Amino acid sequence: MGVGDTEAMTGTGGVRRWRGIAALSPGRLVIVGQIGTAALHAHHTVQVIVAAEDMVLADRAGERVVCRAAVVPPDVAHAVVRGASHGALVHLDPESAQGARWAALSRPRDSARGWVCAAAELQLDMLSEWLRGDQHAGEGSSAGQRVGEGRSAKLGGGQLSSPELGEGQLSPAELGEGQRSPDGPSAGEPPHGPLTDEAAAFASWVRSALASESEKEWLRVGTGETVRHPAVAEVLRLLPECLSAGPVRLAELARAVHLSESRLAHVFSAELGIPFRPYLRWLRVQRAAELIAAGQSLTDVAHGAGFADSAHLTRVCRSMFGAPPSEFGSLDWRGALHRPQATPPS
């Protein structure tokens, strides 16, 4: 994501900034709206980006590619040189089952071409026309208005290290732009043919982020998966109450649900697809975003979410998303309230 002051030039020469709606849940951040610029930066999440039109990405070596979808592995320097009028961005925790699987596909991991090839393997590029149709189909709806009229979020800390974009540098042969069929899906329709599991999941995350009509429902608690183990369900119930109290220790939670610490760690990861520690980190950031959206100061936000201080909160957010928490207030935090549900007894 990479927040800062850098601006991107559109194809017509105008300035384009990031803006849109956002939904955050442990292990995943979804932003839907206008794709702006991001200067060269890295963060400890897998970044999946799909645009409704051509965008230009760059790697640390200065190679640029024209594409509509990319999967950027964690801790890899990347930049968005030119954005798009509409698209979707997803950050995935690299320790989650999904994040690890997606990150492993980008080869070579430091190459922009590898990011684009990974997206093509997952058929994410097939979602480009669907995103465009989703944008136009929703122009008269509140969801469409939220994307088009959301508050600005300036992305791209620092200056891009490679030279300024020139028209002569963007030939399809040099930059690896693939051939695209003119017969894309109609507005609002899914892409032709079956999707991979990953592409279908990406589409469902976008739909979910757009689904809510209420600002009070932006907070997504949990992963949305059905929780079958009663101990995990109880831990998820207890965790929100523990956040502001400071350190949360797995051993104490294990005693509360009458399991050993190792057993609870195992069933927690198996049920939710993400280990306890990164889950807790995402939950704290989720609480921080909620408090920022409510207008609290960064100091109060940090304490309310269980961070040592605002500097600690800032370090965590920059590590995860390449962005300080102060930028969270520039996004329109909407989304479906979705709590993990325990399977009812038979």
Q: Secondary-structure map with pairings?
A:
Blueprint: E1 8-9, E2 15-16, E3 18-25, E4 28-35, E5 38-41, E6 46-59, E7 64-72, E8 78-82, E9 84-92, H1 97-103, H2 112-121, H3 127-137, H4 142-149, E10 152-153, H5 172-175, H6 197-211, E11 226-227, H7 230-242, H8 250-256, H9 261-272, H10 276-293, H11 298-304, H12 310-321, E12 332-333, E13 341-342
Describe the model.
The protein has 346 residues and is α+β, with helices and mostly antiparallel strands. 36% of the residues lie in helices and 20% in strands. It has 12 helices and 13 strands. Strands 3, 4, 5, 6, 7, 8, 9, 10 and 12 form a 9-stranded mixed beta sheet that branches. It has a two-stranded antiparallel sheet with strand order 1-2. Helix 8 crosses helix 9 and helix 10 packs antiparallel against helix 11. It is globular, with a radius of gyration of 20 Å.
In a nutshell, what does this entry contain?
The chain is of the alpha+beta class and 346 residues long. Helices cover 36% and strands 20% of the residues.
Any key phrases for this structure?
36% helix, 346 residues, two-stranded antiparallel sheet, single chain, disordered N terminus, alpha+beta, 12 helices
Specify the biggest β-sheet.
9 strands, mixed
| Helix run count | 12
Q: Please mark out the parts with pLDDT under 50 across 5 or more consecutive residues, or reply none.
A: 3-15, 136-190, 213-224, 335-342
Radius of gyration: 20 Å
- The separation of the N and C termini measures 44 Å
Portion in strands: 15-25%
Which bin fits the share of residues in helices? 25-40%
